[in-house]
Structures are given as structure tokens and as C-alpha cells.
């Protein structure tokens, strides 16, 4: 269900909030790619993608934004983010490649790279940010909403799932401190209590369509 049509002030406020979220994502991605995360790259990437997806979800529930012209204004070439992509791939190492399910209602998955997807997302959202900085909030909102539904939202969901999996395994697959001693204690109790006692272990101008 979509929300009611927004007032001009509400649209401006939403555009500013999304622009802020996009700028935080872009700056955070650059910093992490330069190795400034001090061993916390994956959790911080999880946070950056989660916050950007929140902005995307706010766009997704709105009625379709409209613009005055059929063609996007020319804002120049896309930024060259290939160097950042390569740095992110180096930071992520062996966990860069993951299985991405592009369509949740189709069980098929394809190999993808977190570094590639983070960079694709950055390229997409940066377009809207440049429209916004050029004083065209309507164009920015249209582009952010359209690209969220058509492209970067899907990429971000896949990356979020991969990053969450890495963080979850890192936290939950550790050996429990003193696990051996706990098992021995449980065995001793099993010799006394009826039935024994079992221990458990927590095993980033185009025509409109």
C-alpha cells in the first residue's frame, strides 16, 4: 500500500534525508576500502548497507515520483569507482564471492561479488545525489526510487544477506569458553540425575522506461 501524495515540503525533507543517507554510505565505503575500519570492515559494511536500505524502503512505499521532462538532465559521466572496488575486494578477500538469489521466488542463485555489488550501488545512488546537489530534488527522488526498485535495492538485499551471514557465523561458530569443562561437568551430573543431562553449543541523459 502506498502513502498519500506528499506535500512539497515533505518531498524536500525526504530528498534531504535520502541525500544524507547516500552521502554517509559513499563516504563510509571509501573509508572502509582504504583500510580505515581497523578489523571491523564487515560489521561496518553491514551497518552502511542497512542504513541505505532503510532510505530505499522509505522511497519504495511512496507513490511514484514524477518529473517534468521525459529525459534525465545531463549531469556528466559516472564517477570512476573501479579503484575503490578493487580495494574493497582486497579488504574482503575470500568472503568477497557469495551466492546471490536475484529473485526470492526462484530458488536459483548465481555467484556474485560483494565488492562489485557495493560499487554498483554506489554508482546508482551517486547519480541521484548529483541531481540533488544541482538543486533538482524531484529528479533526485525519481531516480533514487526508480533505481532502488529496478537495481540497487536488489543488490543491497543480496549484500546485506551475505554480510549478515559472515557476522553471524563469526559470532555464533566460536568455541564456547570452557566448553570441554562444561561437557565433563554435564557427564558427571548425568551419572547422578535420572536421564542424564545433554549440553548444547552454539555451533556497498537516459530515456525513462
Termini gap: 22 Å
Total DSSP helices: 6
Strands, count:
2
The radius of gyration computed from the alpha-carbon positions, rounded to a whole number of angstroms, is 23 Å
Q: What order do the strands of the largest sheet run in, or round the barrel if closed?
A: 1-2
Strand content: under 5%
- Helix/strand class: mainly alpha
Low-pLDDT segments: 189-207
Q: How would you sum up the global shape? A: globular
Mean of residue pLDDT values = 82
**SSE succession:** HHHEEHHH
What does this structure look like?
With 209 residues, the protein is mainly alpha-helical. It has helices spanning 8-33, 41-60, 82-92, 114-133, 137-172, 179-190, and strands at 97-100, 110-113. Helix 1 (8-33) packs antiparallel against helix 2, helix 1 crosses helix 3 (82-92) and helix 3 (82-92) runs antiparallel to helix 4 (114-133).
Kindly list the characteristics that best describe this protein.
4% strand, 6 helices, globular, mainly alpha, two-stranded antiparallel sheet, 209 residues, 2 strands
Briefly summarize what is shown.
The protein contains 6 helices and 2 strands; from the N terminus they run H-H-H-E-E-H-H-H. It has 209 residues and is mainly α.
Amino acid at each position: 500500500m502506498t502513502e498519500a501524495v506528499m506535500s512539497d515540503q515533505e518531498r524536500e525533507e525526504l530528498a534531504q534525508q535520502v541525500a544524507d543517507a547516500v552521502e554517509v554510505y559513499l563516504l563510509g565505503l571509501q573509508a572502509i576500502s582504504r583500510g580505515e575500519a581497523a578489523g571491523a570492515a564487515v560489521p561496518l559494511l553491514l551497518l552502511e548497507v542497512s542504513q541505505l536500505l532503510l532510505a530505499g524502503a522509505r522511497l519504495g512505499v511512496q507513490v511514484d515520483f514524477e518529473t517534468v521532462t521525459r529525459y534525465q538532465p545531463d549531469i556528466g559521466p559516472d564517477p570512476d569507482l573501479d579503484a575503490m572496488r578493487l580495494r574493497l575486494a582486497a579488504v574482503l578477500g575470500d568472503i568477497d564471492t557469495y551466492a546471490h538469489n536475484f529473485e526470492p521466488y526462484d530458488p536459483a542463485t548465481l555467484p556474485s561479488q560483494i565488492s562489485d555489488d557495493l560499487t554498483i550501488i554506489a554508482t546508482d545512488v551517486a547519480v541521484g545525489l548529483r541531481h540533488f546537489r544541482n538543486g533538482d530534488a524531484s529528479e533526485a527522488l525519481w531516480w533514487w526510487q526508480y533505481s532502488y526498485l529496478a537495481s540497487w535495492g536488489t543488490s543491497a538485499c543480496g549484500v546485506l544477506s551475505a554480510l549478515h551471514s559472515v557476522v553471524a557465523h563469526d559470532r555464533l561458530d566460536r568455541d564456547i569458553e570452557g566448553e570441554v569443562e562444561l561437557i565433563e561437568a554435564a557427564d558427571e551430573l548425568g551419572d547422578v540425575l535420572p536421564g542424564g543431562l545433554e549440553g548444547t553449543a552454539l555451533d556497498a541523459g537516459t530515456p525513462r522506461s
